[in-house]
C-alpha cells in the first residue's frame, strides 16, 4: 500500500481517505506532464471564457446556435475545473490525498458536466436540424423559451445522473487499499476499490453510461440523417456547402467527445488498463476542452469576429 494511505487508514477499518497514484517515480516526467497539462488547462479556460463572453456581449450572436455554444463553453470550464487542479497538485506534490467526501464531490461535478454536455450536444444537433430542414419556421420554433428549456433540461439531467451515480457508488464500503490508480475520482477506478462483489454495481453504472451516452448520440445521428437528406436535394451547390459548413464544427466536437467517452466507458472491463485509462482521461478532460474553442473560432467567421471585437474592447479599456 502507498505510504500516504497507511498514514490515514488501517485495512481493518472502512476507508475514509484516498490517495491518487503517483504518475511516475521520475520527477522530471511529472514536471513535464504538469507543465503541459497546466498550459492546456489555461488555454482551455481562456478560450472557453472568451467565447462565452463574446457571445454574451455581442448582440449579433444572440441566436440559438450561439446560446447553446455559450452553454457548452461554461460546461467545459466546469468540466476541467472539477478535475484538473487536483490532478496538477498530485503531479508535483506528495499531498496526493483526498477525503471520501472530497472524492464524492469531484465525481458528482465531473459526472454532472459530462452528462450535461452529452445532452447539450444533442440539443445543438436539433437546432441545426431545425435551421436546415425547416428554415421558414426556424425563428418561431426555436424561440428563446424553447432554447432555455433545452439548456435547463441538459443541466438538470446531468445533475440528476451525477447525484444518482455518486450516491450509488459511495453507498458502498471501501476496505482498502485506498490508492486510486487514476488522476481523479472517476467511476471505474473508484468501483475497483469497493469491498465484496461489485458486479451488480458495475452493471448498473454501465447501463446508465449506455443510456446517457447512446440516447443523445442516437438523437444526434437522427438529426444529421435528416440534415443530410435535406442537403442532398438542395439545387444549389453553394447552398449545400453553406449548410454543411454550419454543421462541421459541431460534428467535429461530437466526434471528439463521444469518441473518447465511448472508448472509456463502453468498452469491456477486461480491456481496461490503468495506463490506457489515464491517457484517455487526459484526452477527454484536457485536450478536447482546449480544442473546442479553437474548432468553433477557426471554423466560424461570426465567432472569430466577435472574439476580436471582445479582445479589442478589452485592450481599449486597459489603454
Automatic annotation (TrEMBL):
<keyword id="KW-0297">G-protein coupled receptor</keyword>
<keyword id="KW-0716">Sensory transduction</keyword>
<keyword id="KW-1133">Transmembrane helix</keyword>
<keyword id="KW-1003">Cell membrane</keyword>
<comment type="function">
    <text>Putative odorant or sperm cell receptor.</text>
</comment>
<keyword id="KW-0807">Transducer</keyword>
<feature type="transmembrane region" description="Helical">
    <location>
        <begin position="203"/>
        <end position="229"/>
    </location>
</feature>
<dbReference type="InterPro" id="IPR000276">
    <property type="entry name" value="GPCR_Rhodpsn"/>
</dbReference>
<feature type="transmembrane region" description="Helical">
    <location>
        <begin position="31"/>
        <end position="54"/>
    </location>
</feature>
<keyword id="KW-0675">Receptor</keyword>
<keyword id="KW-0812">Transmembrane</keyword>
<dbReference type="InterPro" id="IPR000725">
    <property type="entry name" value="Olfact_rcpt"/>
</dbReference>
<comment type="similarity">
    <text>Belongs to the G-protein coupled receptor 1 family.</text>
</comment>
<feature type="transmembrane region" description="Helical">
    <location>
        <begin position="241"/>
        <end position="259"/>
    </location>
</feature>
<dbReference type="GO" id="GO:0004930">
    <property type="term" value="F:G protein-coupled receptor activity"/>
</dbReference>
<keyword id="KW-0552">Olfaction</keyword>
<feature type="transmembrane region" description="Helical">
    <location>
        <begin position="146"/>
        <end position="164"/>
    </location>
</feature>
<dbReference type="InterPro" id="IPR017452">
    <property type="entry name" value="GPCR_Rhodpsn_7TM"/>
</dbReference>
<feature type="transmembrane region" description="Helical">
    <location>
        <begin position="108"/>
        <end position="126"/>
    </location>
</feature>
<dbReference type="Pfam" id="PF13853">
    <property type="entry name" value="7tm_4"/>
</dbReference>
<dbReference type="GO" id="GO:0004984">
    <property type="term" value="F:olfactory receptor activity"/>
</dbReference>
<dbReference type="GO" id="GO:0005886">
    <property type="term" value="C:plasma membrane"/>
</dbReference>
<feature type="domain" description="G-protein coupled receptors family 1 profile">
    <location>
        <begin position="47"/>
        <end position="296"/>
    </location>
</feature>
<feature type="transmembrane region" description="Helical">
    <location>
        <begin position="279"/>
        <end position="298"/>
    </location>
</feature>
<protein>
    <recommendedName>
        <fullName>Olfactory receptor</fullName>
    </recommendedName>
</protein>
<keyword id="KW-0472">Membrane</keyword>
<feature type="transmembrane region" description="Helical">
    <location>
        <begin position="66"/>
        <end position="88"/>
    </location>
</feature>
